[in-house]
Design a protein that fits this description.
With 111 residues, the protein is of the alpha/beta class. 39% of the residues lie in helices and 19% in strands.
């Protein structure tokens, strides 16, 4: 499965990235990482030998991504996930999914 990871901070690097880097991960290949911070972008590129971007909307130009794992800032989860879903991407959105149940239902409906 070809994966794009949004955010290479605490959760993106320590939780999701750590799983993707494990030797026994034989299902996921990180092909893109979106990260605002240039130093974290460089770390992701070194860790995964992947493309890096500073804006998740750059992913919309790609047609080779099977799953987007969103580990962006919590206050961005809803808007980013909705935009990704509306552009046809499969999204794994970490907690905090949304601020309200109504927003969460909106993501479910969009999926």
């Amino acid at each position: 499965m070809r994966v794009a990871l949004i955010g290479y901070g605490r959760s993106g690097w320590r939780i999701h990235g750590a799983f993707f880097k494990k030797e026994d991960n034989d299902i996921c290949d990180v092909i893109a990482v979106v990260e605002y911070d240039p130093a974290r972008q460089a770390a992701a590129k070194a860790d995964f030998c992947c493309d890096t971007y500073s804006d998740y909307k750059e992913l919309f130009r790609r047609d080779d991504i099977n799953l987007v794992v969103s580990a962006c800032y919590s206050n961005e989860h809803y808007a980013v996930a909705l935009d990704l879903l509306n552009h046809g991407h499969n999204v794994l959105n970490e907690k905090l999914l949304c601020k309200t149940p109504q927003l969460a239902q909106g993501l479910i409906d969009a999926a």
